[in-house]
Each structure stands twice: as structure tokens, then as C-alpha cells.
Amino acid sequence: MRLKICNAFSLTLLIRASTDMLAQPSNLSRTTNSPPPLLRAHAHNDYEHPRPLLDALDHGFCSIEADIYLVENKLLVAHDRDQAKPERTLQALYLDPLRERARKNGGRVYPNGPEMVLLVDVKSEAEKTYAALREVLQEYSDMLSAYRDGSIQTNAITVIVSGNRAPKVMAAESLRYAFIDGRIEDLEGNESKYLIPLVSDNWSRTFHWRGNGPMPGDEERRLRQIVDKAHGQGRRIRFWAAPDGREAWQTLLDAGVDLINTDNLEGLQKFLLNQSGK
Question: Beta strands 179-182 and 175-176: pairing type?
Fold first, then answer.
């Protein structure tokens, strides 16, 4: 598979694209088994759906989240450690089916679609888990975006590490197949967008609004300030534990939030497709 060397990280392009389109319903991307990809849709705790990964792909999601624990040298997908099962590895649930799909679709998860985000939320010890993750990702380098000696090679999947991260280790690597999910305070720093292309944070740390009625003016202004600052640095923005319903989705969308967190795959899909048709 040929890799495209870019001077600017493709996720920055997706920031611009997502302000103009919520879906890509071109004739090329609409196939019998492929819904239009939704750039703004993020499947929170995706592994808790009946069909991990597959349910999200069936609804056109372009960002998917998987929590992992390092257990006996295996990366197991689970919300809590006592729920981890040896057969539910990151490879089996996500990496293998994503690679199979990318190979069938000419190097993309969706035919002629954008790169896709796999957000890996590390729940176990940061550096040991990342060391294991790095070894696993090397086996999937044919489909993963990579940072190599100051250049970015974009590919079908961009892996972003959240949760217990190992920023010093990752920042020191001349070759890596993963990036870091930052926090709002990282917007005050000077780390490269090639290390931190996405900033995510807990909604309740900054906002009190829970989606009932209009968002208070002072909080709406604060939200837009955060979004504008992230975009000004070439980063995308996401909030977890945000209100998860139509009124909240509309508020987040209007403010320019790039990835809208949801547990309601069908609901958000219908909402975004309806917005794109207006």
C-alpha cells in the first residue's frame, strides 16, 4: 500500500472539512454496504455495543473509542479490569477487522472516505501499556498514520492514545504509529499538533449545562473560545461526559466541536445526516 507523505497533518484538513460538511454522501462513497462517513461522529465506549466496531461502522462513524488494559502481555478491551476477557484483544476487536476492511476498500475504511480515528483509552499503567501497544501497532503499520522524523505519513487509521498516556516517551520517538489525546490545559502549551492533534476533556470540568434548555451565554462563549483556540492551533476538540441528546448535539455542532461523543449511534447518525441535508 502506498503511503502519502504530507507536509501538514491530515487531521488538520479534517478540521476544515468538518466545518463545511458533516457527511460525505458522494456516489463514490455510497455503496450498498457503506453508509456516508460522518466526520463529527465519535462512538464513546464503542466496545459496549452488541457488535464492537461493526455497529459504529454501519452508522458511518469516523471516530471510535476502545478502553484497554495490559493483562499478561495482552491488550484487552474492557471498561473495568474485572470485565477483561482474553479473547477480547485490541487486535481481534479492532485492528484486524479494520485492516481487512481497508484492504477491501482500496486503503480506506470507507470507500474513498477520510482517515478514521481509533481512540485507545489506556486504563492500566501508562508506559508499560504504551510499550506493548507500540509493538502491536508496528504489526499494522500498513494501515496506520505515522510520525517519522518530523514528517507525517497519513493512512487509513490514525491511532490516538488517551487516558493514561506516556507523553515523554511518545514525544521522544522519531517513529511512532500513535498520537496523543491532549487536555484543555495543553492548549496553553507549545506541543506540536503532530504529537497532540486532538484535545479532549471532561465536560463537567468546565461546564454546568446538561442539555436542558438553551446553554447559558457565559458557558456558550467559553465553549466557543476553547474550540477557536484548538482550531487556531490546528487541533480538533472533543468532550466526554457531555449531554448526549439532540439539543446538546446541536449546541456542540454550532460551536464547532469536531467530535461529538455519543452512546446513541443511530440517533447521532440521523441527526448529522439531517443537518447535512439542510
Answer: unpaired
The conformation of residue 142, written as its DSSP 8-state character, comes to T
Q: How far is CA 220 from the centre of its chain?
A: 24
Identify the residue whose cell numbers are 491511532: 159
- Take residue 41 and report the three cell numbers written for it: 461522529
Q: Which pTM value belongs to this model?
A: 0.88
DSSP codes of every residue in 49-94: SSSTTHHHHHTTEEEEEEEEEEETTEEEE-SSGGG--TT-BHIIII
Name residue 31's beta-bridge partners.
Answer: 34
Retrieve residue 70's grid coordinates: 495490559
The total number of structural domains that make up the chain: 1
In this predicted structure, what is the pLDDT of residue 150? Answer: 85
Residue 151, pLDDT score: 85
| pLDDT value at residue 276 | 64
Rounded Cα distance between 129 and 163, Å, is 11
CA dist 58 and 33 (Å) reads: 8
Q: What are the helix and strand counts (H, E) for the chain?
A: 10, 13
First to last CA, the chain: 37
Q: What is the CATH number of the domain that holds 78?
A: 3.20.20.190
CA–CA gap between residue 57 and residue 98 (Å, rounded): 10
pLDDT value of position 25: 40
Please tell me the predicted confidence (pLDDT) of residue 82.
92
State the cell numbers at 254.
Answer: 454550532
Structural domain containing residue 105: 4-276
Q: Which residues contact 227 (CB under 8 A, 6 or more apart)?
A: 237, 255, 256, 257
Successive 10-residue mean pLDDT values, the chain, 278 residues:
42 43 40 80 96 97 98 96 95 98 96 96 98 98 94 95 97 97 96 96 97 96 98 97 97 98 98 80
Number of other CB atoms surrounding residue 192 within 10 Å: 14
